[in-house]
Amino acid sequence: MNFTTPFKSARTSSLIAAAFVTAMVTAPMAVQAQPRDHGCRDCGTVISSRTVEQAQKASGLGAVGGAVVGGLLGNQVGSGNGRTLATVAGAAAGGYAGNNIERSRNTKMVTETRVRMSDGDIRTFTNQGSYRNGAKVRVDHGHLVRR
User: Fold this and answer.
1) pLDDT interval class at 32 (50, 70, 90)
2) Alpha-carbon span 121 to 114, nearest angstrom
3) Which of 15, 58, 76, 142 has the smallest set of CB atoms within 10 Å of its CB?
4) pLDDT of 53-101, one tens digit each?
5) What are the φ and ψ backbone dihedral angles of 76, each rounded to 5 degrees?
6) 75: domain range?
7) Could you give the CA distance from residue 23 to residue 58 in angstroms, rounded to a whole number?
8) Is there a single domain that holds both residue 101 and residue 119?
């Protein structure tokens, strides 16, 4: 079979074909080897974001109020040492329940945002507010801000 090429020699055709194959094989590597943004070490890109409910610290008022109510209810049971034991147990159970009730009522919605930093590290931030995946952000005094 006789193939005709627009080039004058088979050697030229072979060199062009080899250059084309080399360019096609190395092209994906060139995309992967792009340098990261090292100009801003506090900058990054959001990779995930989710909203969660976060319990706040209890002030102790719920525990104290629960202990008082539990102690009063426990004091209504039995007589003698049984009444004392019921009062103490009621106060302990009431304090525990009151503390849990206060903590569950004092919650706030926060957003946990995972960021791939410019140096490749992944950090998680808890903020009020949300960021979309792919958003460019910067860390300012421990909080995320949009770039």
Assistant:
1) very low
2) 10
3) 142
4) 777 677 787 778 877 887 788 788 777 888 888 888 888 888 888 887 8
5) -80, -10
6) 57-105
7) 64
8) no
